[in-house]
Amino acid sequence: MAAASSWEAADGLPSDVRAALNSGPAQLRGLDLVIAVPEWEVPLPGGSTASHTDVLAVATNAHGLVVLAVEAKVDEPFGPTIAEKRAEASGGQHERLRYLYETLGLTQPLPDTIRYQLLHRSASAILTAKRFHAHAAVMLVQSFSPESRWFNDFQAFAAALGASVAVGAVAPVPSAQAPALYLGWCAGDQRHRSPIVQDAV
């Protein structure tokens, strides 16, 4: 709900999202929003459940199209770890995990402590970027937590992919090519937490 309020109130990209993107390379700066779609679904092999992205945005600048897969958080965690998912996995879920690794260009499994949600959200960003023929994909956490709760989990995921992340910035993932993949975290405007959303409704 906080993300919905943030995106509805913005003229184009929300200011916190734009600031994080502008911290990156020229390919991500000065982007103009083309379209933003809530609850974007990306089918993945190995099961009937699609990956649901909170906000899928397509934006453009002089360098071409960029796809933003936005995962919105207030205080909730990123869900089970890879180890926890594997413990209850069917054959199809093992197939999905292999597919996610391949999509991200990974040749070695990630640590068991990595949050599975971050893995398939990032893969969804790449798959959607390919679908739109975008040159770059960004998996961006828009956090409305004043303490940036669960940033440590995001940081561990990024480090496992060879990226060094910071609040309010984006960082490239070396293993992902064509499209390029960036991971980012931005601090959402606190005015869009629950009380403001209730007023808007």
Structure commentary:
- It is a single chain.
- By secondary structure, this protein is α/β, with parallel strands linked by helices.
- The protein has one domain (2-200).
- The chain contains 7 helices and 6 strands.
- It has helices at 2-9, 15-22, 82-87, 91-103, 116-131, 151-160, 194-200; strands spanning 32-42, 51-61, 64-73, 136-143, 169-172, 180-187.
- It has a 6-stranded mixed sheet with strand order 1-2-3-4-6-5, with helices on both faces.
- A hairpin with a 2-residue loop joins β2 and β3.
Question: Main traits of this protein?
Answer:
201 residues, alpha/beta, six-stranded mixed sheet, 7 helices, 6 strands, globular
| Main sheet record | 6 strands, mixed
Low-pLDDT regions = 195-201
The helix content, as a percent range, equals 25-40%
Which value, in Å, is the CA radius of gyration? Answer: 16 Å
Q: Tell me what portion of residues adopts beta-strand conformation.
A: 25-35%
Separation of the first and last Cα atoms: 10 Å
Mean pLDDT: 90
- Neighbour order of strands in the largest sheet: 1-2-3-4-6-5
Q: Helices and strands, in N-to-C order?
A: HHEEEHHHEHEEH
Work out the helix count: 7
